[in-house]
């Protein structure tokens, strides 16, 4: 972009550019102006002399009262001039007349001028912003600032534009303009290989368009650029940031390999080795790493730096004679440490040597000496560990046991649990087992005194006959029983009191617990259980009377009600009242309730049978199927027919307990009395259909009462459900 400062000199008087009538100006601007938001500013700039004549034209003025032209008016002058030039024809070189508009090549001149010319001054936008701020119009002020920023962007002054737009972060247009500008700046930087700038600019845009992807690409490209420049470390750092991109991992390896070569050539063997080792099996990195370690080791050896030499030679692995050189150095260092009395250091070196009898003997000697040194220093626990590590070497195990025993005894008064752990680990050493029992006894006593009775009981029981552990265990049980009694946990109290045997008044405590349990059952209206619980107490206190009370509370109401209903012949009610007691073991005073129940069932079954509902009576008879009379009644033919049958023609007959039947695929109902079997479409049919001729095992012979035909049925099994027969009529 090129900026030209131009002074316009009019060669003749210029006609005013605005109507003096503000209403006319406003309407004109509203319909023709470039930005409706500037209407009031531009109308206000008409000046005080506008009132002179509504027909006259005037110039807008600036704050100093000077007449001005707006940018789009100047553009208009250019457009008019170009429009006139476009009408000029002319002749070509051969003298032929040119077409109109050819001479100036001004096709679409209006659009070109709008796109390429920008008329205005920075101060104009700034003044507009100040005027808007003065009247509190934030929106118009921001528009002026944005316009100024866009002008700066057009002029390539992105710093000014950014400074103007950044404070307007809440304005969507400003924010969009700023982000677009930054994106374009970043793209330009990328195109000019200015990758740090591009990375920073793209990075500031967050999720704007493809800024994140562009940043990643710039980091990668910057790494490649640095690689070409030989800046391998910086390049590696860049590739690490985008390690999941393209061949970044491979390039990281290349950079590290190149760095390793640089370090190797510079004689920085340790640093080079570290780089090569980080590459794994990449090219010859392993071998180079070993070479660098070996070289560093031999150099250190030549310089008398034995420890460094040993470290590097060990790291060199099996490269050339590195193992032997390391062994020699380690042996020298180990022996020197032994001579100096530094057994720990000697052990460290000797343990890295290849296994041999000579080496093992030297290590054992050093460890034993180190353990004795620890004893002398008062580090008995560490010394014991070292002695134990020697296994059967000389008296090492005995020395370790002695130290552990000594530690246990010293801890017994301060940390009895730790002492116990040590004594248990010592097994049958000396009196360790007896000392362990003493610790357990003291732990149990402490728990009992602290009210941790269950823990104490478990501990005393585990001690067996140690000291007075059995008696202490009894005391714990007794106290636990008392606690359970107080908490209403009567079963627990009973069990604990009984476990106490004759200890103190435990036997009486057990009886009290049983009585309390029975009373609690009574209060909970569990009268049957209460009666049994009181009965188990025999003659204890008023247990016998409480038995009677419990039985009466349990049975008397239903018993008396059942007796009354029996006298009234209301057998169904009797069955309901006594059904719950039929399977129960009743006290002698109420034993006849069983007989009353059976009698009521028989009577009710007889009633239903007399009403033509024998199959309604069957479930009632089954309730007392152990009754002889009930058994006999269930032998009735109508009951023996229940099941699935087939006659000699293959026709199937199904008779069910609920009184339904299915004969030859047709659902219906059946009943019967004596030899007669009734069949019909409704429950409790009265029409006789068959007569039972005989029943022998799994064969029944019927005679049709209407047809006189004899039908022989063979038993097939349990009856099918009504729904199943309906779904499968052929069954």
Write a structural description:
By secondary structure, the chain is an alpha+beta fold. Among the domains are: 122-168, no CATH class; 270-431, no CATH class; 535-629, no CATH class; 636-727, Lipocalin (Beta Barrel). Helices cover 60% and strands 7% of the residues. The chain is built from 34 helices and 10 strands. The strands form 2 sheets. It has an 8-stranded antiparallel β-barrel with strand order 3-4-5-6-7-8-9-10. It has a two-stranded antiparallel sheet with strand order 1-2. A hairpin with a 7-residue loop joins strand 7 (676-680) and strand 8. The protein starts with 17 loop residues before the first strand and ends with a helix. The model is unreliable at 48-52 (pLDDT under 50).
Task: Write a concise synopsis of the structure shown.
This protein has 731 residues and is an alpha+beta fold.
**Largest beta-sheet details:** 8 strands, antiparallel, barrel
Structural shape? flat
N- to C-terminal separation?
101 Å
Strand order in space, largest sheet? 3-4-5-6-7-8-9-10
Mean pLDDT: 86
Portion of residues in beta strands equals 5-15%
Number of helical stretches of at least 4 residues: 34
Q: Pairing-aware structural class of the strands and helices? A: alpha+beta
The parts where pLDDT drops under 50 for at least 5 residues are 48-52
In percent, how helical is the residue content? 55-70%
The total beta strand count reads 10
Rg over CA atoms, rounded to whole Å, is: 57 Å
